[in-house]
Amino acid sequence: MIRTRVLFCLLISFVATVQSSAIIVSSSCISQASLYQYGCINNKTSIGCYCKNINWLGSVTACAYENSKSNKTFDSALKKIAAQCSSHRSYTLDDMKKIYLNASMYLRAPAKTDMKVLVNQPLTANETAFHYYYQNNYGNHLALIRSQWCAWGLVFFWAVVLTIATILNVMKKVFGKSIMPNSVKKSLIYPSVYKDYHERTFYLWKYLLQSLSFW
Description:
By secondary structure, the chain is mainly α. The chain folds into two domains: 17-146, no CATH class; 181-215. 73% of the residues lie in helices and 0% in strands. The protein contains eight helices and no strands. 21% of the residues are buried.
């Protein structure tokens, strides 16, 4: 039963990881772009300033394109970036694609001076910085998603177990039929009920009696 739960969690974790790639790419692109001077102060409210800067938008959309492994991931990453800007300015997926296509004609590699001097055109991704943020975001996001999905997976697992147990009990009590094979009873139910619980209770009671006699 433990193996089943572990395998179930691993399977769900894999699916969650695939679905979350766009979030990780978009977050990493935004983080690496914040290293450069776009005329915005880096704080919690700076995203509103960045979202109005066409050079910043061109840089992060180009970064998303460079680091997306599929068109679907790229589209999803653009939607995530647009969602970050939604409270300040509304961008559709088509808007984001047009921004990228326009920026692709003016892209240049970032320079150290771009960290202090105002950037006046879109920049390609700083791959070193991007991969650094990608690894951090990947680890944090995976841990969060895995814990959430495993929690729901275990809830679903026990819901199925209780449902099956209820059906078996109703069949036996109401209709007088036991549809559970004897092999299941012998290998799963009886050992669990007797060995794990009965023996532990017995030894705990014995320990308590010894403790009381000592005092």
